[in-house]
Each structure stands twice: as structure tokens, then as C-alpha cells.
Structure to design on (224 residues):
């Protein structure tokens, strides 16, 4: 990781927003991953000790069977408070350390959080993808920014565009009937049109796709 990607927290919110805007220029919304995926990675972050410790989880799965191959957890001192829109600076160092523990880099990474569907088009999935130079997709449970003008069908796998000021920034995806839709957006090295299809490929009987569902269980300590 280049230290310029995650500068030290000084309390200067404007400076971090400027860094986001600079790094956002490096995001590539074009498919650049193997046609036949062998492995898929899931990543999520939780917090311990009343927020003083950042707990990052990395899960590596077989892309065909969705069987977990590796799981790793990293704990680091939390480096900054939560600031809306700047989550990646808080979580990225621990996520990258968790990634480094995997025996092989995933062919594609699903990140619990936003990608391009972000005020400066640089959510955690973008930041992770650019810093690690890996194909990434953001899968979030709530909208951070944007609106959808088309009603979303209740059918499993239905999706509709999420837009901000007329620009498409992601998708609303109905991964499971009867559940609220997911917010899906590319992070890096994945095309906008590809993102919902790839996420649905890894959805089983749950609302969340398996890689981030398993990572979330570990990061939030629900598996202990």
C-alpha cells in the first residue's frame, strides 16, 4: 500500500476528500478479470473495544462450489473516527493486511460497502481495488447517495439503475424476494453492466452473496 493512498488522520476532512478525488481518477470501470474465476474473495470490517480496535475479515472461496478455502482476521488500532463518506480511510489498512494473509490473491473481490455509488465515486470497494490493483465490487445494504426512478420487481435477481444527478452510479439489486434490495456498484476493474450479474452468481439462499456474508459473520464476531 502506498502511504499516499491512506494518509494519517489529522482531522482535515477536506484534505481526505481531495485525496479521494485524486485517487478516483485511477478507477477503471472495465472488465479486467479472468473469464473463468477460480477464487472469489469476501471482505468486511467490524469493530471491537467500543470502536478502539478495527477487525478486518478476509474470506477466500472456491468460485465454483463457494466452499471456503481460507479465512483470516486482522486487528489494528482504529486510526480515525467515523466520518460519513470517508469510511475507506478508516477501514482500508486493516483490510489490506487481511488480504496479505491469503495464500493467493482472489480473481475477484466482493467488499461489504460501496464502490462507485459514492459522493466522490470512490467508496471502500474502489479504494481497496485501486490500492491492491484487484477487480472489486461493492455490495452495500443501504443507499449512501442516489435515487432509483424505476420500481424494482420482487423477482429474485431483478435490478434497476441507481443514479445521482443523472449519472448511473450503481444498481439496486433484489437478491432475495421479500427482502430489501442491495446496493451494488463496481469498485475497480469491473464494468458497471457486469456488477449485478457477478454478485447474483454468488448469492445462495441469503440476501447477501456468500463471500461478504461469510466475511460479515467473522468481522462482526457472529461466528464465535
Amino acid at each position: 500500500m502506498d502511504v499516499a493512498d491512506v494518509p494519517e488522520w489529522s482531522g482535515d476532512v477536506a484534505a481526505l476528500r481531495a485525496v479521494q478525488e485524486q485517487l478516483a481518477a485511477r478507477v477503471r470501470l472495465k472488465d479486467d478479470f479472468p473469464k473463468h474465476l477460480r477464487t472469489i474473495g469476501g471482505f468486511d470490517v467490524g469493530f471491537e473495544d467500543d470502536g478502539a480496535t478495527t477487525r478486518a475479515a478476509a474470506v477466500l472461496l472456491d468460485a465454483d462450489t463457494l466452499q471456503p478455502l481460507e479465512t483470516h482476521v486482522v486487528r489494528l488500532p482504529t486510526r480515525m473516527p467515523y466520518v460519513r463518506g470517508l469510511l475507506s480511510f478508516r477501514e482500508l489498512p486493516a483490510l489490506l493486511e487481511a488480504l496479505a494473509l491469503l495464500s493467493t490473491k482472489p480473481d475477484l473481490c466482493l467488499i461489504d460497502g460501496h464502490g462507485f455509488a459514492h459522493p466522490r465515486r470512490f467508496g471502500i470497494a474502489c479504494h481497496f481495488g485501486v490500492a491492491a490493483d484487484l477487480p472489486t465490487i461493492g455490495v452495500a445494504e443501504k443507499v449512501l447517495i442516489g435515487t432509483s426512478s424505476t420500481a424494482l420487481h420482487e423477482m429474485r435477481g431483478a435490478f434497476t439503475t441507481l443514479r445521482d444527478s443523472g449519472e448511473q452510479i450503481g444498481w439496486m439489486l433484489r437478491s432475495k424476494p421479500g427482502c430489501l434490495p442491495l446496493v451494488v456498484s463496481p469498485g475497480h476493474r469491473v464494468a458497471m453492466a457486469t456488477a449485478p450479474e457477478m454478485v447474483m452468481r454468488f448469492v445462495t439462499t441469503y440476501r447477501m452473496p456468500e463471500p461478504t456474508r461469510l466475511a460479515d459473520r467473522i468481522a462482526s464476531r457472529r461466528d464465535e
Remarks:
- The chain is about 25% helix and 30% strand.
- The chain has one domain: 37-219.
- The domain at 37-219 is CATH 3.30.2170.10 (archaeoglobus fulgidus dsm 4304 fold).
